[in-house]
Design a protein that fits this description.
- It is a single chain.
- The protein is an alpha/beta fold and 159 residues long.
- The chain contains five helices and eight strands.
- The chain has a single domain, classed as YbaK/aminoacyl-tRNA synthetase-associated domain (YbaK protein, Alpha-Beta Complex).
- A five-stranded mixed sheet has the order 4-2-3-5-8.
- The longest helix has 8 residues.
Length: 159
Amino acid sequence: MAKKIEKTNAARLLDRAKIAYDLVPYTVDEDNLAATHVAEELGEDIATVFKTLVLRGDRAGLFVCVIPGDKEVDLKAAARASGNKKADLIPMKELLPTTGYIRGGCSPIGMKKPLPTFIHSTCLDHERIYISAGVRGLQIAIAPADLVSFVGATVTDLV
């Protein structure tokens, strides 16, 4: 018998908004939390598996970037997109208190408080993309336009 998948806060928020998505479990490797591992576990193209990063800008404060899992965020592009001159990833120890999520389980949906969100433009090249459901071992498969609309994101080049 298949193990029942526990709904996360992110999933409940999508339910409430009547947005279609699928919860997709995968096996977690605590020694390898990389999105490339997630894509391998899901059997999906890494270009469809997006990671959520939280940054702090020198002017506008905290913001979120959602980028393809095998890419690095271009800090200058992220700063420009968010109205900052400079931006850096927040220290790992700040992630949980800031967002309510841990590394490897950070979702752009349902953070402690809404933050300006920027999603890399390649998301629109895919019918569905994968983002963290808010816990390690569970992804949300969602239409990119639905995600962009739900979180009020700006689609821009970030890598």
